[in-house]
Amino acid sequence: MKARKLAVEGAIEFTPRSFSDDRGVFATPFQQSAFEAAKGGPLFPVAQSNHSVSRRGVVRGIHYTGTPPGAAKYVYCAAGRSLDIVVDIRQGSPTYGRWDAVLLDPEELRAVYLPVGVGHAFVALTDHTVMSYLTSTPYVADNELALSVLDPALGLPIPEGIEPLLSERDTHALTLEQAAARGLLPSYEHCLELEAELSAGSHVVQGTTGGLR
């Protein structure tokens, strides 16, 4: 598995080897040893697995979890094709306001790791685009926040020919500047602390269960 650091501090793209024959394709979108080598620590304790299905043109995001508790995510596309977008909204981060994008599909089976406090969006490029997530915290509606994916100051790469289909919540989401003015953005230092706590918790889990392999 190949790992590549993205333009957002702490975010990582993973590309597994795939094996094809006349039956189809086999690949492993997550490998513990590759993740630990790239991140310098274990995967967060997984609290929830999410699954979404979207038609072409659907844009979900920019979503993030308020801190605390914050949330780390590991995302891949199981069917269809999507443009996955990582946005650094952590105030004080060396890459604050920057974004990076990764094409996700079931052929390459790339996956993206999003550290605590980072914003996430994706654009469904085909009908029946299936996104799968592992998250470090369970979904709690009151903790979930959104920023405008169409914020001109961010200039996110919505592909030409795509007319964004947004939820009502995402349509009326704040810009990055508005959210900062209202004190709704996470602190980079606080996010690092929460990330360290997740890693420590993962070590505890591995120690009590004999490992996650």
TrEMBL record:
Keyword Transmembrane helix set for record: no
The domain of life is: Bacteria
Q: Which keywords does UniProt give here?
A: Isomerase
Entry keyword annotation includes NADP = no
Q: Which InterPro entries match?
A: RmlC-like, RmlC-like_jellyroll, RmlC_Cupin_sf
Task: Give the record's family classification.
Answer: Belongs to the dTDP-4-dehydrorhamnose 3,5-epimerase family.
Protein name as it appears in the record: dTDP-4-dehydrorhamnose 3,5-epimerase family protein
Organism from which the protein derives: Streptomyces huasconensis
